[in-house]
Amino acid sequence: MKEEKYTKVFEIKVSPADLSFDMGWLIYNHKLAKQDAEKAFKKLNEAEKIQFFISLSPYERYLKTSGIAKCHMVTYINKRYYENEYPEAVSIKKFNPMLADFARSKTSRK
To answer: I need a surface site. Which of 11, 89, 103, 110 has the fewest CB within 10 A?
Structure first.
């Protein structure tokens, strides 16, 4: 993506991702049991650390839609939750309109 019009204005650099515990602690944002989490994080190899960081966004979306409480980071690592395949958010537009109307009629209070 180093086009001339961009390189005249900007300097484009590619840097490796920060796979440190401190960055994981910051992104996970559930600040309990830090020592235990750091100990578990250090046991992960590089591929597992990458998986850990990639899985955080789908995990957050899953928690919002399911209403489940967020677990401690040490539990997330030790139980290997980063290997889970969290369902994508379902758009209502993809549903059959007749089914949506039927569901609304059954859930509306009279």
So the answer is: 110
Q: Rounded distance, CA 77 to CA 25, Å?
A: 12
pTM for this predicted structure: 0.68
User: For residue 7, how many C-alpha atoms fall within 13 Å in the half-sphere facing its CB?
Assistant: 5
- Angstrom distance (rounded) from CA 1 to CA 95: 39
Ranges of H-type helices in the chain: 4-7, 21-28, 34-42, 46-66, 73-78, 97-107
Query: Which run of H or E residues covers position 110?
Result: none
CA distances, 77 to each of 9, 33, 87, 102 (Å): 42, 12, 19, 42
Is the Cβ–Cβ distance between 39 and 77 less than 8 Å?
no
For the stretch 56-93, pLDDT in tens is: 999 998 888 888 899 999 999 999 999 998 887 655 55
